[in-house]
Recover the amino acids of this structure.
């Protein structure tokens, strides 16, 4: 890797990290697992003046089980998330989606917080954050700020973080009993980002859908909540007889899918419909 | 008893691997020399433009910068990058300056360079170079490039050459032919992606020059660089240290190699350049990129009368080392394993404003095999036969070998029946066909397809006389030297240049058998023109079939010399001395000497036969009489999700016949890697240029390579029909997998989609492309139905009014 030159610091506490970040000015960047930032540096698409490596900040790491939510620290690696009994019990959708990220090497370095802070609509976790209505916790010298997922993803690679703010982690609401989950990812190779992905959570009772949360990966400059599908699916039979497919037909509504080498917008829209149907079926376990 | 067991044929683990995979070795980029400088190249952002101004002055002032050069600085001495294969008398070989001086013709062409104290400073200073361009029209599409009024890449126009071959009466074959298949296939452009990027280190002491390069061809490179730069050959040493893969991409004389030599000559200091992956995608020569029109004339029963091929081959902007010859290597293979009465081949090489193409694993033969094997499937559908049956009716029978094909090659040996029967059994062909029928009946959204590829290829490049008749600039012999050391161990010097193939292991096995020394007692020296003065290097699956034979011959000479010494010491006649398992024994006695004892005695030279030169060492240069022709049957089953267009390979069976096998583990590795690469062309890889001529696939996020997770378990087996043209009976295994796999996969996909009216899917068969093909078919089918309904309505009306 031949990046442009930059200063590097590796603080060992969150306070120190905030201080360094504050001093370093607007062009400083937090370095987490480096799995998205380093490729940008390599291609000289980013020219940060300072990298603040938070890899040694213990406070940012770990998973905590609270009464109504699970807190996942920003520096928790993908690998740790997948292995966490707490995550698998209370918010399995996070583990399901994380398990589809890249390959073992990347999952041992890449972090939960880095994936959210990078705000890549092709990343698998932003849509999950949206579907689960996570609350993201950012800290600056002024204290903590809670940002709902619905407000966090401002634009392509643009999170609602201010300069000097560090993402501490996210509160993932426990949805309680009766919910089924699925993350349906379509990608061209095992290591590749999602061409389209669908995060679905469905609450059923007596064979009908009571409530559903559906969010889409890589269907616009930000992750997209498929609200039309969520409305259409409410109250329909949770079976293979066609009503889920019908609801899924509206998956691309309101989305603004990008066109690139892997898919043109119309194909992405088509995939969103097919994959949403599959995700709903799987989340309903039918 | 291990000492009577033959080494050849054993699945030896490769002795070189521990060193290679633990990094205790020297890749070119690891080389550090005192005072070494680093080179970074500025590359053209334009596909086609005139260079109107180059100002490097600001870059000269940047930190750490020692020198900055533009093309004009080298104009007087840089010469033209060589093309060693002028395929026709009138082939156009444009001047190809290593650094562009007045015009750029593809994105990525070097236009200036910075030499600095470290790599980062060199890269930083590139920003400060100012270049003005006057844009010219890019030339991107081969067909349009040949049309009247097209903008031109070179003043001479866009046609590089037209090369023709014909045998038999093609007009007769097609006249009133009951069946004619006429198809156009696209061989997309590929980017060879060796694991080790290219790297060059150049140094001089003012008199002698040494070039380290991650190359497949140190020997050829030395000759070519001497001719290009004017540095006399005897003062130039080329070293290929350990090299991490090439696939043909390092069978080249590159601009960077020439320029690094010129820079070191200018500055008197060592310089290094290592490409980044993106730089590599732009400027490593590309592969394939052909438009293939193939027509097959056949009888109703599926027997082929003749094949006609019309090829456009994209040369890119210039002709590099063997650019124009690549499609010709396929010219003799479009007839495949089949018998026919007429064959007609025409290839036109076309210039475009893209990176030049050149050899890439298989070089010409994968393209040929793809076209004929795809066409065989289409023929099967047309005549209503199982695709394997059509092949059976046409292929050369085992009893017919040796067989001279319509393309003029003599296939020395082969057994297509045996390989096919084995493959069908391993695959469970009939059961899969039954499942396919069931899925079709059920209109399962996931359809099953079965693809066949019964391939052959020519390797062991090559008889020098044949290469000469094809206007190639060099021969195809190979050289080996065997040195018996005083302690009885053996040093081999080979002219082949391994870059991942495991020659050190295979050569040790051959020597162990030939001289009766332990496998462990053999070492192999390669890749340095100072220690291995003679060689033709490694490409075209030639190393074992040519270099291995030179080694066998050198070993024979050593043995014969040793026999003389042994006979002398045992006071017997040489005719009475037998050799086996490393021992010379007087026939009918127990008197014996080991070859190690003979080596020591020869070294001491106290008591040698009268007039005997005191050495056992020997050299041999082997030039084959013929190519060798591996073959095999590959079968692939795919599931195609018709809702998403995604293809999943369900099973893959490969039964290859590479002749005698020296090391089954190495062959297995070559077959696995080859299949992976062939599948990659079918499903994943494509170099994409946009309408302005910018390469879009500059990273591995855009240029997709499969990993193990994307591939099925390969079921592999072998039949063994020895080559009759060399003493080892070997054929070559380096490219077979790549050649066979691509049509097997695409045939399977098309087979899965036949019920939807699909007749072809262009490669790579991405999910989107499969989906669009289905969408288009659905539209067309609906239109056809509508027309049929209208016609019926019309007829009804007519009927009513009549
Ligand atoms: C080959 C490959 C394949 C991949 N495939 C996928 C995939 O399929 N799906 C997927 O979702 N991802 C994929 N990724 C990305 C991977 O998930 C990354 O881990 C993730 O995008 C970023 O996490 P990171 O810890 O590496 O962050 P970094 O790269 O270190 O940082 C990313 C960005 O977030 C900012 N940032 C990081 N942490 C914080 C913080 N605590 N506070 C404030 N800002 C912060 C950084 O400043 C930077 O701008 C892939 C990566 C690679 C290399």
């Amino acid at each position: 890797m031949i990046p442009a030159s930059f200063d590097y610091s590796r603080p060992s506490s969150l306070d120190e990290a905030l201080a360094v970040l504050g001093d370093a000015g607007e062009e400083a960047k937090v370095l987490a697992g480096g799995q998205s930032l380093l490729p940008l540096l390599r291609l000289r698409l980013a020219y940060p003046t300072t990298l603040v490596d938070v890899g040694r900040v213990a406070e940012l790491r770990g998973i905590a089980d609270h009464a109504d939510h699970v807190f996942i620290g920003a520096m928790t690696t993908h690998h740790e998330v997948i292995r966490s009994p707490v995550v698998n019990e209370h918010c399995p959708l996070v583990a399901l989606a994380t398990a589809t990220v890249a390959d073992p090497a990347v999952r041992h370095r890449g972090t939960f917080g880095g994936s959210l802070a990078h705000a890549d609509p092709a990343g698998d976790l932003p849509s999950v954050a949206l579907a689960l209505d996570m609350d993201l916790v950012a800290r600056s010298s002024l204290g903590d700020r809670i940002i709902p997922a619905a407000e966090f993803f401002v634009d392509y690679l643009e999170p609602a973080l201010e300069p000097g703010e560090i993402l501490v982690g996210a509160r993932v609401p426990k949805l309680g009993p009766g919910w089924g989950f699925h993350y349906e990812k379509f990608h061209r190779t095992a290591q590749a980002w999602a061409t389209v992905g669908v995060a679905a959570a469905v609450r059923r009772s007596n064979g009908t859908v009571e409530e559903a949360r559906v969010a889409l990966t890589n269907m616009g400059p930000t992750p997209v909540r498929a609200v039309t599908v969520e409305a259409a699916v409410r109250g329909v039979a949770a079976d293979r007889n066609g009503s889920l497919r019908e609801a899924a037909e509206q998956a691309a509504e309101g989305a603004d899918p990008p066109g690139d080498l892997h898919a043109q917008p119309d194909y992405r829209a088509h995939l969103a419909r097919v994959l949403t149907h599959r995700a709903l079926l799987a989340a309903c376990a039918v | 008893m291990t000492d009577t067991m033959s080494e050849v044929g054993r699945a030896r683990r490769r002795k070189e691997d521990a060193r290679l995979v633990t990094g205790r070795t020297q890749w070119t980029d690891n080389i550090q020399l005192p005072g070494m400088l680093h080179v970074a190249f500025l590359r053209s952002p334009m596909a086609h433009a005139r260079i109107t101004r180059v100002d490097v002055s600001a870059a000269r002032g940047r930190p750490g910068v020692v020198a900055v050069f533009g093309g004009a600085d080298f104009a007087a001495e840089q010469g033209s990058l060589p093309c060693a294969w002028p395929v026709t008398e009138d082939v156009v070989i444009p001047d190809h300056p290593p650094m562009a001086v007045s015009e750029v013709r593809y994105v990525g062409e070097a236009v200036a360079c910075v030499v600095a104290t470290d790599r980062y400073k060199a890269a930083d200073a590139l920003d400060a170079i100012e270049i003005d361009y006057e844009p010219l029209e890019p030339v991107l599409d081969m067909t349009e490039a040949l049309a009247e009024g097209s903008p031109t890449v070179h003043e001479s126009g866009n046609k590089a050459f037209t090369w023709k071959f014909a045998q038999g009466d093609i007009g007769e074959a097609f006249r009133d032919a009951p069946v004619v298949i006429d198809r156009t296939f696209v061989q997309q452009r590929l980017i060879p992606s060796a694991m080790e990027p290219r790297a060059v280190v150049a140094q001089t002491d003012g008199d002698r020059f040494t070039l380290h390069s991650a190359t497949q061809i140190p020997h050829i490179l030395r000759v070519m660089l001497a001719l290009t730069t004017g540095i006399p050959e005897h003062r130039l040493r080329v070293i290929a240290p350990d090299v991490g893969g090439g696939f043909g991409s390092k069978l080249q004389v590159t601009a960077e190699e020439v320029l690094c030599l010129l820079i070191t000559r200018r500055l008197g200091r060592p310089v290094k350049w290592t490409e980044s992956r993106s730089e590599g995608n732009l400027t490593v020569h590309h592969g394939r990129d052909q438009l293939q029109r193939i027509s097959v004339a056949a009888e109703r029963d599926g027997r082929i009368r003749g094949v006609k091929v019309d090829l456009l081959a994209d040369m890119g902007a210039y002709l590099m080392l063997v650019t124009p010859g690549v499609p010709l290597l396929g010219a003799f293979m479009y007839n495949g394993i089949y018998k026919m009465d007429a064959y007609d081949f025409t290839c036109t090489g076309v210039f475009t404003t893209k990176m030049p193409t050149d050899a890439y694993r298989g070089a010409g033969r994968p393209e040929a095999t793809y076209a004929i094997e795809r066409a065989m499937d289409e023929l099967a559908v047309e005549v209503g036969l199982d695709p394997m049956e059509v092949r059976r009716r046409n292929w050369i029978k085992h009893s017919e070998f040796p067989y001279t094909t319509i393309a003029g090659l003599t296939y020395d040996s082969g057994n297509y029946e045996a390989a096919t029967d084995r493959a069908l059994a391993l695959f469970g062909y009939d059961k899969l066909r039954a499942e396919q029928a069931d899925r079709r009946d059920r209109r399962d959204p996931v359809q099953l397809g079965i693809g066949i590829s019964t391939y052959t290829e020519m390797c062991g490049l090559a008889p020098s006389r044949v290469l000469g008749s094809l206007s190639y600039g060099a021969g195809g012999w190979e050289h080996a030297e065997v040195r018996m050391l005083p302690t009885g161990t053996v040093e081999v010097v080979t002219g082949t240049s391994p870059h991942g193939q495991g020659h050190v292991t295979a050569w040790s096995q051959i020597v162990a058998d030939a001289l009766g020394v332990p496998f462990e007692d053999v070492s192999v020296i390669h890749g340095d023109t100072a220690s291995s003065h003679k060689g033709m290097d490694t490409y075209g699956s030639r190393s074992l079939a040519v270099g291995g034979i030179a080694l066998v011959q050198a070993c024979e000479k050593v043995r014969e010399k040793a026999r003389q010494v042994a006979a002398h010491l045992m006071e017997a006649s040489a005719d009475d001395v037998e050799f086996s398992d490393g021992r010379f024994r007087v026939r009918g006695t127990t008197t014996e000497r080991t070859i190690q004892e003979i080596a020591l005695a020869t070294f001491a030279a106290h008591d040698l036969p009268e007039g005997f030169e005191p050495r056992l060492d020997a050299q041999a240069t082997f030039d084959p009489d013929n190519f060798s022709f591996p073959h095999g049957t590959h079968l692939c089953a795919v599931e195609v999700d018709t809702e998403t267009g995604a293809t999943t390979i369900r099973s893959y069976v490969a039964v290859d016949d590479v002749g005698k096998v020296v090391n089954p583990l190495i062959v297995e590795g070559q077959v696995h890697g080859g299949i992976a690469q062939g599948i990659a062309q079918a499903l994943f890889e494509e170099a994409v240029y946009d309408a302005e001529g910018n390469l879009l696939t500059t990273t591995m996020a855009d240029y997709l390579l499969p990993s193990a997770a994307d591939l099925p378990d390969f079921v592999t087996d072998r039949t063994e029909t020895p080559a009759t043209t060399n003493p080892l009976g070997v054929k070559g295994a380096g490219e077979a997998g790549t050649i066979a796999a691509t049509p097997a996969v695409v045939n399977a996909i098309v087979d899965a989609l036949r019920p939807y009216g699909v007749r072809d899917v262009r490669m790579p068969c991405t999910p989107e492309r499969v989906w669009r093909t289905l969408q288009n078919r659905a539209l067309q089918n609906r239109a056809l139905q509508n027309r049929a309904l209208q016609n019926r309505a019309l007829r009804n009306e007519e009927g009513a009014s009549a």
Remarks:
- Chain B has a mean pLDDT of 96.
- Chain B has three domains: 3-19+477-622, 31-136+195-245+250-283, 287-461+626-765.
- Residues A 29-37, 54, 74, 101-102, 106, 110-111, 113-115, 117-118, 123-125, 161, 166-167, 191, 193 surround flavin-adenine dinucleotide (CB under 6 Å).
